[in-house]
Each structure stands twice: as C-alpha cells, then as structure tokens.
Amino acid sequence: LDTLEKWVTEIFSEIPNNGLPKPSFGHLTQPFDTPEFHKLYRVIPIRKVHSLSITWALPPQEQYYRVKPLHYISWLVGHEGKGSVLSFLRKKFWALALYGGNGETGFEQNSTYSVFSISVTLTDEGYKHFYEVAHVVFQYVKMLQKRGPDKRQVIWEEIQKIEANEFHYQEQTDPVDYVESLCENMQLFPKEDFLTGDQLLFEYKPEV
C-alpha cells in the first residue's frame, strides 16, 4: 500500500483541481420527446436471428440506487417460470429467450434519463407474429402496473438476498478492472457506498 500510495502521489498530485462540482444535465428533460422515438424500426441483421427490442425512456433513476426499481422490474419481466411472459411465448412457439433491464451506467442511465429495454429472441414463427409478441409484453407490464408493488416485498427481499450472496461470494476479478469499476462508482455514489452501490439493494420503497 505504501508503494501504491507513492505512485499515485507522484503521478496525480500535479493535476490541478478546479474546485468545480461535477456537471449535471438534469435540466435537459425529455431527451426522447421526438416523433422519431415513437416508431417501429426494422433492421436487417447480419446473422440469422430474429429479435424484437422494446425501449422505454424514463426519468433518471440513478438517485434511487439504494432501491434499484429498474432491477426489480427486470427481475419480474425476465422471470421464466409459470405465468411469465417467456413461458407464455414459448408455449406459442414464438420465442426462445427474453431479457429486460437497464445497465445502470452511461447511455442507459445518467442525470438526464434512464432507458428500460425488453429484448425477445424470436423463432421464425414468432417473427411472423411480432405484433402479438409486443402486445403480450405490454399486457404483462400493464398487469404489473395495475397490481402494484405493495404485495411484492417478498420478491424484493429475495432479489436482495441473491445480490448479497453474489456480492459476498464473488470471484476475484482482475485488479485493473476492479479499480476502474471503483473509479466509476466514485462518480455515482456517496463514499460509504463506493464498494456496494452498484450491486446491493438497501431499501424497499414501493412508491419508487
């Protein structure tokens, strides 16, 4: 540690501190308020694969990192058991896989907006019925919205325990990657949450 501290001091101590707070772009609201956003785009893929991606633009969620509402929603959307979207679509032979979520950094989440995406890998038959597939996804999201999160604290606590176990028993990563990750966290979280802010769930707040 003494050697590392010496290196850091030698390399970085001459960088001037301008004393300015980090920039915020929270005043730039509704970046996707454009006719181009509310459209269906067809893209011809390079490989032979059919994929349907649905993206929602949301207010910035980074302030709720202790609750992680988008992680909670992605857990419900990505569930593969009985009663799930994917289970229904597989019975119809329309889909092979489904993923929903937000990367919580960079383009997907910042001080201006957050995006939430659901991506469905379709079969050839599913591609023929992609409108119906999209309709099923919207129906499921609407159902979650109507039922609300109040009855679902058990699910939130289950996610919390799983994430805590993954944090405590995580495999050792490359030191350079770990330092890079911590440096990113220093821009996003208070000091006490540098190590855990991007991984752990701390508070259940159904209103969020």
Instruction: State the distance separating the first and last CA atoms.
Output: 41 Å
The side-by-side strand order for the widest beta sheet comes to 1-3-2
Q: Give the rounded overall mean pLDDT.
A: 92
Percentage of residues assigned to helices: 25-40%
Low-confidence stretches: none
CATH class category of the largest domain: Alpha Beta
How many domain modules?
Answer: 2
**Which sequence of SSEs, written as H and E, runs from N to C?**
HEHHEEHHHH
Structural class: alpha+beta
Number of strands: 3
Give the overall silhouette: globular
Main pleated sheet: 3 strands, antiparallel
Q: How does CATH name the architecture of the largest domain? A: 2-Layer Sandwich
Proportion of residues in β-strands: 5-15%
CATH level-3 fold name of the largest domain: Cytochrome Bc1 Complex, Chain A, domain 1
Pfam family, one: Peptidase_M16_M
GO biological process, one term: proteolysis
GO molecular function: metal ion binding; metallopeptidase activity
Family: Belongs to the peptidase M16 family.
Account of the protein in words:
- The protein has 208 residues and is of the alpha+beta class.
- The chain has two domains: 28-147, 2-Layer Sandwich (Cytochrome Bc1 Complex, Chain A, domain 1); 150-207, no CATH class.
- Helices cover 38% and strands 12% of the residues.
- The chain contains seven helices and three strands, in the order αβααββαααα.
- The chain has helices at 2-12, 69-77, 85-91, 124-128, 130-147, 153-168, 175-188, and strands at 50-58, 95-101, 114-122.
- The protein has a three-stranded antiparallel sheet with strand order 1-3-2.
- The longest helix has 18 residues, at 130-147.
- The chain is globular.
- The model has no long low-confidence stretch (mean pLDDT 92).
- GO terms for molecular function: metal ion binding; metallopeptidase activity.
- Belongs to the peptidase M16 family.
- One of its GO terms (biological process) is proteolysis.
- Keywords: Hydrolase, Metal-binding, Metalloprotease, Protease, Zinc.
- Pfam families: Peptidase_M16_C, Peptidase_M16_M.
